[in-house]
Amino acid sequence: MKRFYKHTGVDEGEGGFRILLDGKPMRTPAKAVLVVPTRALAEAIAAEWAGVPDKAEINAAHLPLTRLAATGVDRVVARRADVIADTAKYAGSDLLCYRATAPDSLVRLQQELWQPLLDWAAERHGARLVTADGIGFVEQPEEAKARLHEAVSAHGDLALSALYNLTHTAGSVVIGLAVSERRLDAAAAFAAAQMDELYQVDRWGDDPIAEKQREGVRRDIEACARFLSLLENARLRG
């Protein structure tokens, strides 16, 4: 579908702020009016649509904030409990808990970069996850998993859309929550999520396919972090 509108805008309506295309409220793929809780997020979504070149094809990949908001409205509202469960389950196999045994430089790097995040989760949420050497599965304490489930559940529907995507992309609910609560910015979250891959690149060099995949991860993390930031105080449920 090519760009079919001339102007974008934002107005305040029932329940929040609507994004307008030629004065008409934008709708989600499920035909619901797209309403977001903050003007900042509505204006950022409107800017995405304003940035589509005239007569160009509308590519959803270039509208990441729109996709996250529409997913929150269309899918999270109807399947909230499932999305919470699918996000919180990463506490049982969080990336940060699986440590290398060699070389020493990688062991030290993981300890320096990942352990402070696990310590933060323990202090902030009472969720003390345990680590394991190698890739053998380690069973996490039920209390820790329950505390992280509570932290995920505290998010509103739109924030949960971003938190799920961020957690899935990073392979870590701790990284996802750290971004949501502004313990990490997007760059630091990317560095933590991709640390093993970046370490290998530094040692052995890169290849175009891996580089392209990494850039996709970077864009996804940046979009989710920005989305959560634009939600401001509406990130959590009232």
The helix-strand sequence is EEEEHHHEHEHHHHHH
Helix/sheet category: alpha+beta
Question: Strand-residue fraction?
Answer: 5-15%
* Estimated radius of gyration: 19 Å
The mean pLDDT is 95
The count of DSSP E runs of length 2 or more, i.e. the number of strands, is: 6
Model regions low in confidence, pLDDT < 50 over at least 5 residues: none
How far is the first residue's CA from the last residue's CA?
38 Å
Please count the helical segments.
Answer: 10
Helical residue percent? 55-70%
Shape designation: globular
What's the main sheet like?
4 strands, antiparallel
What is shown here, in short?
Helix content is 55%, strand content 8%. With 238 residues, it is α+β, with helices and mostly antiparallel strands. α2 packs across α6, α3 runs parallel beside α6 (157-170) and α6 packs across α7.
